[in-house]
Specification:
Elements: H1 3-19, H2 32-42, H3 46-57, H4 64-80, H5 84-97, H6 110-125, E1 142-144, E2 157-164, E3 172-179, E4 186-189, E5 191-192, E6 197-201, E7 210-218, E8 224-228, E9 235-238, H7 252-264, E10 270-275, E11 285-290
Antiparallel strand pairs: 1-2, 2-6, 3-4, 3-7, 5-6, 7-8, 7-9, 10-11
Helix pairs in contact: 2-3, 2-4, 3-4, 4-5, 5-6
Length: about 300
C-alpha cells in the first residue's frame, strides 16, 4: 500500500464523514457489484474493491453514470495500492465518458485532484482519445419483468417479460435457470410475443425450496446488451414443498392417540402429558397415563 496516498485518503475520508461521505453503497441499486466495490472501498479493503469493480465493469447494462462510478473508485483504489499507471488508465476511461468530471475539493485532498488534472491535461493534449459524444453512444436494453410470488412443485413455470431496446440491437432473449441444489444454469430461448417475450420452465425442474433464473438479451454478435439478474444474483421464486413441518401437533399419530384417548375416557380416564425440554429442540414427547378411578390417588388429587 502506498503510504502517501493512503494518508491523503485518510484525510479525504475524515472530510467525507462531515459532508455525507464519498459515496454510499446503496447509491447503486441496479448493479450490486458496484455496491459491493464501493462498500469495500469505504471499508479500506482496496484489493477486494478492485476485484468487485472489475467484475461490475463487464456488465453490458451499465449506464454511463455507473461506469463513471466504477472508474472513479478503481482509480482511487489503484492510487492507494501504489498502482499509478492503472489509476491513470482508469481516470482516462472515466474522462472519455464525462470529460468535465471533477473530484470534490471538500472531500479529496489536493494530491488526488492534481493527479486527475495531470491525467486530464495529457488526455486532452492527445485529442481526447476514446471520447464519444452522448448522441452517438449506444444505450443498454432494459428488461421489465414481474417475478411470480411462488411456483408449484412439479408444475411448469411461465415467465413473461418486456424489453425496451432504444437502439434496436436485441436479436435474442435467453432465460438461464436452475433448480435448488444445482450449480449450473440451463439456458433456453424465450419466444417473442405480441407484447414481449415468454418462456416456460418445465415442471420437472421446479423443485423445492426455490427455482432461480435470470434473463439476458443479445445482439447480432451474441453480445449481452442487457440483463435482469445474473449468475451471482439470480431472481429467486420460492417453491413450497406442500408438506407440513413435522410438528408433533400436526402429526396423524398424535390426533389418533387423542381420539382413542377421548373415546376411551368414557370407560377409562386417560391423562395425556406432553412437552419439550427447555434446552432441546427435539419433538415433544407424548405420555399416555391410564388410571383406575376406583383406586384412591391413582388419577391424581
Amino acid at each position: 500500500m502506498n503510504v502517501r496516498w493512503f494518508a491523503a485518503l485518510t484525510v479525504a475520508m475524515l472530510a467525507a464523514a462531515s459532508v455525507g461521505g464519498v459515496a454510499r453503497a446503496q447509491d447503486f441499486p441496479e448493479n450490486p457489484l458496484i455496491q459491493q466495490g464501493v462498500q469495500l472501498y469505504n471499508d479500506l479493503e482496496y484489493e477486494a474493491s478492485v476485484d468487485a469493480l472489475q467484475r461490475a465493469l463487464v456488465r453490458a447494462e451499465n449506464v454511463p453514470e455507473q461506469k463513471v462510478a466504477i472508474f472513479k473508485f478503481l482509480a482511487l483504489d489503484y492510487l492507494v495500492l501504489g498502482r499509478q499507471e492503472d489509476a491513470r488508465q482508469a481516470f482516462r476511461q472515466l474522462l472519455a465518458i464525462q470529460p468535465e468530471f471533477q473530484l470534490d475539493p471538500a472531500v479529496f485532498s489536493p494530491e488526488y485532484r492534481q493527479f486527475l488534472e495531470g491525467v486530464r491535461a495529457e488526455w486532452e493534449g492527445q485529442g481526447r482519445p476514446g471520447w464519444v459524444s452522448p448522441q452517438s453512444r449506444l444505450r443498454p436494453a432494459t428488461i421489465d419483468h414481474r417475478m411470480p410470488d411462488e411456483a408449484v412443485r412439479g408444475e411448469s413455470l411461465d415467465l413473461q417479460a418486456t424489453v425496451e431496446d432504444p437502439d434496436g440491437r436485441v436479436r435474442r432473449f435467453v432465460v438461464a435457470y436452475r433448480s435448488a441444489g444445482q450449480s449450473d444454469f440451463a439456458r433456453m430461448e424465450a419466444q417473442a410475443t405480441s407484447t414481449g417475450y415468454a418462456a416456460t420452465i418445465a415442471g420437472d425442474r421446479v423443485e423445492p425450496p426455490v427455482i432461480e433464473y435470470f434473463f439476458e438479451v443479445l445482439d447480432d454478435g451474441n453480445n449481452v446488451v442487457g440483463r435482469k439478474g445474473d449468475e451471482r444474483t439470480p431472481l429467486r421464486v420460492p417453491v413450497p414443498s406442500g408438506e407440513d413441518d413435522g410438528s408433533w401437533y400436526t402429526s396423524w399419530w398424535f390426533w389418533t392417540i387423542v381420539g382413542v384417548g377421548v373415546a376411551a375416557a368414557v370407560a377409562v380416564p386417560v391423562g395425556i402429558v406432553y412437552g419439550t425440554s427447555g434446552e432441546s429442540n427435539d419433538p415433544a414427547s407424548v405420555t399416555i397415563i391410564l388410571c383406575d378411578p376406583e383406586v384412591p390417588g391413582d388419577c391424581g388429587p
